[in-house]
Specification:
It contains seven helices and five strands. The chain is of the alpha/beta class. It has a five-stranded parallel β-sheet. The chain starts with a helix and ends in a 7-residue tail after the last helix.
């Protein structure tokens, strides 16, 4: 065992495994929104805001959106968020939803970088929305 620990290839291999494991874990676990203009909200908070007419952007793909969405939400697929950032007011709250909350967090970061002051990522996304039985528009 001691002979193995003295070989450079052993350490290189171990480093590759650890870096790969860290990258894989980062993809699996949801990221947390940072402080500032970006915050995480529950589906209950989204429901209350949507009922009051808040801007809700759904960043999923069109086929996902067609399967069911938050009533009144606007489809803006993640790949188009940056190019469409100028279409929405930067001072009012913007709620972002996707399937699980990960793509919407990426979209939220894009909007913050574009100067939006109040961006809210919906934790758990449509999976959480459906799990608590909130209304779905088709």
């Amino acid at each position: 065992m001691i002979a193995l620990l003295s070989r450079p290839l052993f350490w290189l291999g171990l480093a590759v495994v650890l870096v790969s494991a860290g990258a894989y874990a980062a993809l699996l676990w949801p990221r947390q929104a940072s402080a500032g203009p970006l915050s995480n909200v529950s589906v209950q908070e989204l429901d209350a805001a949507a009922r009051q007419g808040a801007l809700v952007l759904d960043v999923r793909e069109p086929f996902e959106y067609a399967e069911g969405r938050v009533p009144g939400s606007v489809l803006v697929p993640l790949a188009t968020v940056a190019s469409r950032a100028g279409e929405f007011g930067k001072d009012a709250p913007v709620y972002l939803v996707c399937r699980s909350g990960n793509r919407s967090l990426v979209a939220a970061e894009v909007l913050v970088a574009a100067g939006y002051r109040d961006v809210r990522n919906v934790t758990g996304g449509m999976l959480a929305w459906e799990a608590v039985g909130l209304p779905i528009e088709r």
